[in-house]
Structure formats: C-alpha cells, structure tokens
Specification:
The protein is of the alpha/beta class. The chain has a single domain (about 1-135), classed as Metalloproteases ("zincins"), catalytic domain (Collagenase (Catalytic Domain), 3-Layer(aba) Sandwich), CATH 3.40.390.30. The chain is built from 5 helices and 4 strands. It has helices spanning about 15-30, 45-55, 85-90, 95-110, 120-135, and strands spanning about 1-5, 35-45, 65-70, 75-80. Helix 1 packs parallel to helix 4 (about 95-110), helix 3 packs across helix 4 (about 95-110) and helix 4 (about 95-110) packs across helix 5. The radius of gyration is 14 Å and the shape is globular.
Length: about 140
C-alpha cells in the first residue's frame, strides 16, 4: 500500500519523493480517509490525450486524469499527469514548475476524496481546497 510515482516516456523532475508522499498522505488523513494504493504516472500530452479519448471520450488535452478505485474509507486510484501541461500552465500562470505540479498532484487526491470541479461553483471550491492543502506541504 502507499503512494508510488512512475515516469513514462517523459522526464519528470520530482524532488523529495518521500516528503511528497508524507504530504499527500497527510491530505488524505485530513479529509478523513485512509491511504490505500495510489499510483501517479507522469506522461506527455499525446499519451494523456489517448487516455482521455479511450476512457472518457474526450478529444482534448488535459493536465490530469484520475481513476477512482476507492474501497470504503480507503483512497485508491491511478492519477495520470501531463508534464507538458504542467510546464505550459506554470508559465501561463507565472508560477514555478514545482508549484504547478504539486497543485495538480493534490487536485487528483482531492478528486479521489470526492471533490468535483464540474461547474463554476465546484471549480472555486476545488481551487480553495488546493490552496489549503498546499499550505500543509513542507518543502
């Protein structure tokens, strides 16, 4: 059980993996859940686009796709993140690569905890929750 990180066809700068795991586990605990098996895969735009088409019938680029395999009160899932989107969005939002990456990583966890980002109201709630959880992170 636990959180694992896998690089696919892309190079992913991912510093302090043990601290990231502790932080994400703390987020899950704060939300009232137990950490099960969570698998992060870091991919490129084209790979995530294919996943988006195949499993969600969406023909658009995205920064993250989360598959929920939760069991009762235990968080389990697969989270696919496009490193290309992280780089582009970090530049667009004038934030560091690590800041954008961590925001997207916790975004996936929050989806697994039941949060939605469909619609304006839910997007605002999700962003506020991301901000709150980013404050828990110790660099």
């Amino acid at each position: 059980m636990g959180i694992s990180f896998v690089k696919s066809s892309v190079i992913t700068p991912l510093a302090n993996k043990s601290l990231l795991k502790k932080w994400l586990t703390a987020v899950i605990k704060k939300e009232g859940f137990k950490t099960g098996k969570i698998h992060y895969s870091f991919v490129g735009d084209l790979e995530l686009l294919e996943i988006n088409k195949q499993f969600l019938n969406h023909d658009t680029y995205t920064d993250i796709i989360t598959f929920d395999y939760n069991e009762n009160n235990t968080i389990n899932g697969e989270i696919f993140i496009s490193v290309d989107r992280i780089i582009e969005n970090a530049i667009k939002n004038n934030v560091s690569y690590d800041n954008e990456l961590h925001r997207v990583m916790v975004h996936g966890i929050l989806h697994l905890c039941g949060y939605s980002d469909k619609g304006k109201k839910h997007k605002l709630e999700m962003t506020a929750k991301e901000d709150e959880m980013l404050l828990l992170k110790k660099d």
